Amino acid sequence: MSRPVQVVVLGAGSWGTTVAGLAAHNTPTLLWSRSSAAAEEINTERRNSRYLGDRELPAGLRATDDIIEAARAADVLVVGVPSHAIRSTLSEISNEVRAWVPVLSLAKGLEPGTRQRPTEVIAECLPGHPVGLLAGPNIAREIADGMAAAAVVATQDDRVASALQPLFASSVFRVYRNTDVLGCELGGVLKNIVAIASGMADGLGVGDNTRAMVLARGLAEMTRLGEAMGADPRTFAGLTGVGDLIATCMSPASRNRRVGEALARGLTVEQAVAELGQVAEGVKTAPTVMELARDFDVEMPIAAEVEAVVAGRRTPADAYRGLRKVAPGDEHDMA
Ligand SMILES: NC(=O)C1=CN([C@@H]2O[C@H](COP(=O)(O)OP(=O)(O)OC[C@H]3O[C@@H](n4cnc5c(N)ncnc54)[C@H](OP(=O)(O)O)[C@@H]3O)[C@@H](O)[C@H]2O)C=CC1
Ligand SMILES: O=C(CO)COP(=O)(O)O
User: Fold this and answer.
1) Is the interface score ipTM higher than 0.90?
2) CA of 84 to the centre of ligand 1 (A)
3) What was the pLDDT predicted at 335?
4) Where in the cell does this protein reside (predicted)?
5) How confident is the model at residue 329, as a pLDDT?
6) pTM of the model
7) Cys-Cys crosslink for 23: which of 29, 31, 43, 172, Cβ 3.0 to 4.6 Å?
8) Which domains, and CATH codes, for the chain?
9) 313 annotated binding-site participant
């Protein structure tokens, strides 16, 4: 009789812990935290109080602070640390993960400096492994509370995604497949920038029409850059595109949206991030996205204003005044 698949999740933040909880309902799951106190709390109290409050974690979930033990145990490796920490985390275990173990990214940012997507960083750190991602409109706390949601496993080889789907799925967590890894990954990355713009709009007290305009034109920017980079434009109309955009721009729990709101309240970006105490990937990713927009010659006026605010060159109110100056052309064209 074959033994069950061992899932290992690296990173015990809000989403890493939640995904580990999903997997633990289906198969043995080990969660690595760099904090021994957090690992102990998960093992003894079945809670990760810093990130998920009092929510109870499944009994089958085990945690460790030993990354070598975790890497060696993995039949499936899930990378749940923020984008800027993927390379340093995987460099510790590059010789420890068995050949052919599939690796799934949860991250929704770009690596500063290299401009690489998480799956590209993973492929460099763990060459030869099938690499993909799990993404979609997935606010961690709602899923940890058992509310219904859907996500996408994206891998180039559809057979790998088919094998991974049931490890994370449940009666309330639907897992779809998509072979457009680039499009799915960019959707998750780019919606964070629009969510900062949406939070700024809410902080400035705009109405629902303005909010809808930011979402619709933000989606147009995401799709334009994605298509220019080689993604399938249809992907942006799906869960990892417009789906994640809506969830992140509307949810009071979204960290990127909350950063935008804090900026509109007059906080500096450093103060906004400190107030949050969790990762908001859009802050670090905004300048990198603008570099890509220039390289691929794509107009991204909303992302440009967000980048200017995050860099401290513009106030949120000025950014919104700036957006009003963009001449509206054909809806399907550039700006
Ligand atoms: N939260 C959500 O709803 C969702 C998040 N995501 C994405 O998942 C990724 C992780 O986010 P999330 O779990 O929410 O983030 P959190 O801020 O909640 O947690 C980050 C985790 O990564 C660890 N970490 C941070 N820096 C390092 C480092 N340099 N080396 C090793 N570990 C590190 C933290 O450890 P410590 O606690 O010790 O600081 C913590 O365990 C992000 O890319 C995010 O965009 C995707 C979908 C949903
Ligand atoms: O990606 C997310 C939901 O799908 C979480 O968004 P935040 O990182 O803004 O909280």
Assistant:
1) yes
2) 10
3) 56
4) Cytoplasm
5) 82
6) 0.97
7) 29
8) 7-179 (3.40.50.720), 182-324 (1.10.1040.10)
9) no
Binding pocket residue ranges, ligand 2, CB within 6 Å: 108, 137-139, 192, 195, 244, 247-248, 254-256, 280
Integer Cα distance of 62 and 23 in angstroms: 11
| Overall average pLDDT of the 58-80 stretch | 97
Ligand minimally distant from the alpha carbon of residue 137: 2
Are 19 and 134 contacting, i.e. CB atoms less than 8 angstroms apart? yes
Confidence of residue 327 (pLDDT cuts 50, 70, 90): confident
- CA of residue 83 to ligand 1 center, whole Å: 9
Residue located nearest, by CA, to atom 26 of ligand 1:
85
> Could you tell me the distance, in angstroms and rounded to a whole number, from the CA of residue 299 to the centre of ligand 1?
30
Ligand number nearest to the C-alpha of 52: 1
Judge whether 230 is annotated as a binding position.
no
pLDDT at residue 326 is higher than 90? no
Measured from the CB, is residue 137 less than 6 Å from ligand 1?
no
316 ligand 1 Cβ < 6 A: no
The pLDDT confidence band at residue 229, using thresholds 50, 70 and 90, is very high
Instruction: Indicate the average pLDDT of the chain.
Output: 96
Q: What is the mean pLDDT of residues 211-230?
A: 97
pLDDT value of residue 334? 60
Q: What pLDDT sits at residue 323?
A: 84
Predicted pLDDT at 325:
81
Residues with a known catalytic role: 191
Residue 325, annotated as binding a ligand: no
